[in-house]
Amino acid sequence: METHLYYDVVIVGAGVSGLYTALHLSKKKNILMICKESLNECDSMLAQGGICVMRDEDDYDDFVEDTMRAGHYENRKDSVKIMVQSSRNIINELLDLGVDFEKNPDGSLKYTKEGAHSKPRICYYKDITGKEITETLQEHVKKMHNVIIMEHVIMKDLLIENEKCCGIVAESSEQEKIVYYIHAKDTVLATGGIGGLYEHTTNYSCLTGDALAIAKKHGIRLENLDYVQIHPTTLYQEKKGRSFLISESVRGEGAVLLNSKGERFVDELLPRDVVTKRIYEEMEKENSRWVWLSFKNIPSNVIIEHFPNIYRTCLEAGYDIMTESIPVVPAQHYFMGGIYVDSDSKTTMEHLYAVGETSCNGVHGRNRLASNSLLESLVFARRAADRIEKE
Ligand SMILES: Cc1cc2nc3c(=O)[nH]c(=O)nc-3n(C[C@H](O)[C@H](O)[C@H](O)COP(=O)(O)OP(=O)(O)OC[C@H]3O[C@@H](n4cnc5c(N)ncnc54)[C@H](O)[C@@H]3O)c2cc1C
């Protein structure tokens, strides 16, 4: 069966970048959002560590420098500046929407630290920051009368006329397939990362870079396709499927990496790619499939309050992090490359935008600084919405 649908904007993907775009488009526009599986099956729900913010004006240079250094200075500096300058407004807006970031007794935001940050500047909610932000955004978008969300609908192609994008072709994933021709003035690709293509990944398996393949087919510019981030620490398990991430903020709070002799072999707070390389070297030296992560320097009340999800999941896997080290191994985690976009998230095709992990606005360079991706997704999703409104 085939059907034609007509909207002002179609947003492909319902993680933070898709949701935030919808939230910032005019209420007068009819908007359709689709997602491949259920609404909650997106990486945004999995983010543990938190979301960065420029602490104050004095932090501006340091935040830019930390992001550039982690990215091996291959970042587009203008994009980095935009992200850092916009960060406080984004956090304030999330607070206004009801996101419950951790606070100090005087009501100010509590910050945590992760690798390659020169100071604590990460806002967080326990170790489930992504779930807290995503569910809050979902709640607001679901209340918008001009937005329809369709789950289990998969984008298969773009609709193109005179070299301009005018919507998408999609298919329902039910047994009796419906093919949707979704006509829209503007199309936003918010399809997340590529982890589903890997055997070991922290990502949802449905994230297979579909938008990238479609963009390539139509000659839309892509960038840095080989810039894939491997996260140094996921829980080593024999079972197949998504690897459980052990957030970098546990190392920020004092967890240390050990070899089989119980010796430290790396500064745990170096950038992710450097720590990953050292872990692989140590694994090779010891002919082991993992190294160990010890939580012994983290007080038990901090484990319970800050890392309840990690504590519980490790217990379920048979490890009590209060008393023993856990085996960890690097896994595919994040894609720095993507569909090339300008600083308003516009692709090289008219009326086609890309936001979030599927896009490449150059913020991350060759390696993403921890907790910069939720922020980058929100900043540039908002800019896409503003640009669509202006055109
Ligand atoms: C375990 C884990 C921990 C993380 N921790 C942090 C952290 O602490 N801080 C931080 O900043 N970042 C973190 N990240 C990264 C961050 O979560 C993601 O980069 C970000 O959430 C991506 O958002 P998104 O909207 O681009 O994509 P997603 O949230 O992944 O959403 C993608 C959407 O696209 C849809 N989709 C995909 N293909 C199609 C298709 N063909 N048709 C229709 N729909 C499609 C999916 O169904 C989904 O709705 C973490 C990531 C993981 C995996």
Explain the overall architecture.
With 391 residues, the protein is an alpha/beta fold. 30% of the residues lie in helices and 22% in strands. The chain has helices at 16-24, 60-70, 77-97, 129-142, 210-217, 249-252, 272-286, 300-306, 308-316, 373-390, and strands spanning 2-12, 31-34, 51-52, 122-123, 147-150, 153-161, 164-172, 179-189, 222-223, 228-235, 256-258, 291-294, 326-335, 338-340, 352-354, 359-360. The model has no long low-confidence stretch (mean pLDDT 96). The site of flavin-adenine dinucleotide (FAD) has 42 residues, from helix 1, helix 4, strand 6 and helix 10.
Spatial gap, N to C terminus: 34 Å
Given this structure, which CATH class of the largest domain is correct? Alpha Beta
Secondary-structure arrangement, i.e. CATH architecture of the largest domain: 3-Layer(bba) Sandwich
Low-pLDDT residue spans: none
What's the order of the H and E elements? EHEEHHEHEEEEHEEHEHEHHEEEEH
Structure at a glance:
By secondary structure, this protein is of the alpha/beta class.
Core attributes:
binds flavin-adenine dinucleotide, FAD/NAD(P)-binding domain, Flavocytochrome C3, Chain A, domain 1, 2 domains, 30% helix, four-stranded antiparallel β-sheet
List the helices and strands and how they pair.
Elements: E1 2-12, H1 16-24, E2 31-34, E3 51-52, H2 60-70, H3 77-97, E4 122-123, H4 129-142, E5 147-150, E6 153-161, E7 164-172, E8 179-189, H5 210-217, E9 222-223, E10 228-235, H6 249-252, E11 256-258, H7 272-286, E12 291-294, H8 300-306, H9 308-316, E13 326-335, E14 338-340, E15 352-354, E16 359-360, H10 373-390
Parallel strand pairs: 1-2, 1-8, 2-5, 8-15, 14-16
Antiparallel strand pairs: 3-4, 6-7, 7-8, 9-14, 10-13, 11-12, 12-13
